[in-house]
Amino acid sequence: xxxxxxxxxxCFILCASAASGFAAEKPNIIFIMVDDAxxxxxxxxxxxxxxxxxxxxxxxxxxxxxxxxxxxAVCAPTRCTLMTGKHPxxxxxxxxxxxxxxxxxxxxxxxxxxxxxxxxxxxxxxxxWGLGNPGTTGVPEKHGxxxxxxxxxxxxxxxYYPEYLVKNSERIELPGNKKGAKGQYTxxxxxxxxxxxxxxxxxxxxxxxxxxxxxxxxYVIPQDDPNLQLYKDKPWNQTVKNYAGMVSxxxxxxxxxxxxxxxxGIDDNTLVIYTSDNGANGPFIKALNSNGGLKGxxxxxxxxxxxxPFVARWPGxxxxxxxxxxxxxxxDLMATAADMLDIKAPAKDGASFLPxxxxxxQSGHEFLYFELYEGKFQQCLRMGKWKAxxxxxxxxxxxxxxxxxxxETKNIAEQHPEVVKQMExxxxxxxxxxxxxxxxxxxxxxxxxxxxx
Length: 453
Description:
Elements: H1 2-24, E1 28-34, H2 53-61, E2 63-69, H3 75-84, H4 112-118, E3 122-128, E4 147-151, E5 164-167, E6 170-173, H5 186-200, E7 206-211, H6 226-229, H7 238-264, E8 270-276, H8 282-288, H9 303-306, E9 310-313, E10 322-329, H10 333-341, H11 354-357, E11 368-374, E12 376-383, E13 386-390, E14 398-401, H12 417-430
Parallel strand pairs: 1-7, 1-8, 2-10, 3-4, 3-7
Antiparallel strand pairs: 2-9, 4-5, 5-6, 8-9, 11-12, 12-13, 13-14
Helix pairs in contact: 5-7
């Protein structure tokens, strides 16, 4: 009996020790999302004009996703989908504004950060929040973040030389920017706080959400920044040069994050994802091919507005130099993080892409659904090689075969009526009515659309 008891105790200790070891090895997660950079701005996605060696190096050391999508085609809706793990037809923010003004996240809305905080993670956010201003139910510290440093209001984030930033709803004065002075460029401060958070939490698991604001307008960068100097002899106007410098500045900043992980000895236990929140702005589509030759840009649900650069690096876990055609989106972060920890994700719209990261086969999403109320209502659906798009709930959908027509130049709806019927049924089903937005049955002309050829 004593021997049996001794064996039981020994087994219990070993199991407890293994569980403790697993907890100690919970992987860190760093999600770096830059603002308004198009897929065509990055060298590894075919970009020809800008210097982005860090994303290229990350792809060589990790995995590049070639069918990745932003949460939506504009700032706040993307952030809402990313944080909640819900697709755009289920979230509160379906445009930057609504018919009731700015909409904060409701109290107790589960987020990636709140899920990870409950799992024992330190949680920090840096840059643009955009889902609730100080004094509302939507502030990040009420949604799982131990620390947020940067901007809460998205319009405030347009200013790179403001008089203050915000840290956990408190104003942090920037004396170098008082009375119109331009002494403290905010991205330098936000990047420094990102690196500090990583160092401060090197001995425990952490989630770092780097929602860095460049290259969103205003298009300004210190004139002595070496990243701007890369383009001083280019035949572009100053706005385009500034934008280019901002993209390269961000890319180099990601490099400094990777260097910090190596310096701290936590590189092998950290998943880093590098992406952008939506498609490029118009001026840079023309000057730099920032949408990579795709149709549309920011605020459009054609591919140029939502197709995203998306690279993941996790030494020892992800096979270097891997390319994946798996259909993935920002809404999948919550499900993937939950899968990494073997816990249940609060939302069900996302799908974990952890098997793909680890080199295993997986089927992934049946479809990805989007809707947006920016200027005009839009819906789209990506399903396999097919893409459907429409501007009214009862309008006929356009149909594109992205395997042969990635730039959506030829509407082939009339040739594939059964595919269109199936996709229109999904478009109708996945839209949930919201009191905050007016959804038209037909496009804004007020006339029923005919099917375009």
